[in-house]
Amino acid sequence: MPSSLSILDHFSALEDPRQHWRVIYPLPEILLLVLCATLCGMDDFVEIRLWGDQRLDFLRRFLPYARGLPAHDTLNDVINALDADLF
Fold this sequence. Notes:
Layout lengths: L26 H13 L5 H10 L1 H4 L12 H10 L6
């Protein structure tokens, strides 16, 4: 029987490495952006951010992105701080 888990549920074991009080962009929003853009062929965080700018309405179908999208530097910092073994 097919599972009803979302793709983000598979990343739920990842802990956000940032200090909780400093988080502006939730980790699930960052992961969804990076995952979707990477699947669409984007190769770096600059391209990922540009892809997200063009498809923000699509991304908001799944998560709110209330503060918009993070800068490419923020994407780089957060993804590189994640536990690579769990990722």
